């Protein structure tokens, strides 16, 4: 694993960790699934509002999981038994996404199309 540049303690249970290499951060984010079932969460650094949104989503996910529902948590979204729910900032709650409005159902686009749309993937900044 890579080298840690700095660590900052936010409160009793939260820390910000800066890695020397961006690849190290990506490796950690990819491997965080191995912590499933424990009360440990690893995310990219989020603002206070984003953390509160993710907490609300995790709370809903926990309730659904206790019912025996298959769930998958993402960034400001929750998949419940294959039905996508996304965070509505105006209403400040999770809402079901209609299948025709789900951007994940769109036909994949190639790199040139993404570049023309201004959605070319760039470098990630670690903070």
From TrEMBL:
<feature type="compositionally biased region" description="Basic and acidic residues">
    <location>
        <begin position="94"/>
        <end position="112"/>
    </location>
</feature>
<protein>
    <submittedName>
        <fullName>Uncharacterized protein</fullName>
    </submittedName>
</protein>
<feature type="region of interest" description="Disordered">
    <location>
        <begin position="94"/>
        <end position="127"/>
    </location>
</feature>
């Amino acid at each position: 694993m890579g080298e840690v540049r700095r660590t900052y303690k936010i409160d009793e249970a939260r820390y910000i960790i800066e890695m020397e290499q961006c690849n190290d951060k990506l490796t950690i984010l990819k491997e965080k699934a191995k912590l499933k079932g424990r009360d440990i969460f690893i995310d990219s650094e989020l603002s206070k509002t984003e953390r509160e949104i993710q907490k609300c989503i995790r709370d809903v996910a926990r309730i659904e999981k206790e019912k025996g529902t298959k769930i998958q948590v993402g960034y400001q979204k929750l998949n419940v038994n294959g039905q996508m729910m996304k965070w509505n900032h105006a209403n400040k709650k999770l809402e079901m996404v209609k299948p025709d409005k789900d951007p994940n159902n769109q036909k994949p686009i190639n790199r040139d199309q993404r570049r023309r749309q201004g959605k070319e993937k760039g470098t990630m900044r670690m903070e």
